[in-house]
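For consistency, the fold was encoded as tokens, which produced the following:
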Amino acid sequence: MQLLSVNVGRPEAVVIDGERVLTAIQKQPVVGPVRVTLLNLDGDRQADLRVHGGPDKAVYAYPVEHYVFWAPALGNRDLPHGFFGENLTVTGMLETEVCIGDRYRIGTVLLEVSQPRTPCAKLAWRAGQQDFIQRFSAARRVGFYLRVVEEGELQAGAGIEQVAHDATSLPIDTVYRLRHGKTTAGEEGLLERAAALEALTASWRDAIRRRLVKQASG
């Protein structure tokens, strides 16, 4: 596992569906050490703090392996690291393997996986395709957020060390499906397991509990 790029950005005004909005999705790679605090990286800010940022979503990581997957759908453009709005472009950390609550050391920073990403209209704008949110969600190649357990510095090229893993947890891919994808009869136990994950952000636990109640009631 390796950190390939560190990407930051500040809110700027763009026009989406005829409306002027602020977004910091256009992240740019930076060179050298970057300080990481409990809320974000130096030089990085979130535009809409109602749905972005905060201690549980301080850092967003995205696997570079998905760039190859998305390239044909995006016109085979040369996509720069940070294109999907991620702070950390990483390799070897797929959603099928990374679990809620996993902890990783990068440089002197200790990070904990907190939740999958839910795509929004700003990603569709960035991709230039109105249906990109649906495609992004259906592929479940969504990346994941991390909370900062220990502040410090990291930089591109650093190795990524897994320092904690809970064998009873669930991978990002599964948790995303349980909230946004299709569930089947008999998966109530899996929903209960996801809703009980202490490291999963409260909003995701609540959403999965509501789905569990709905499914259980038929």
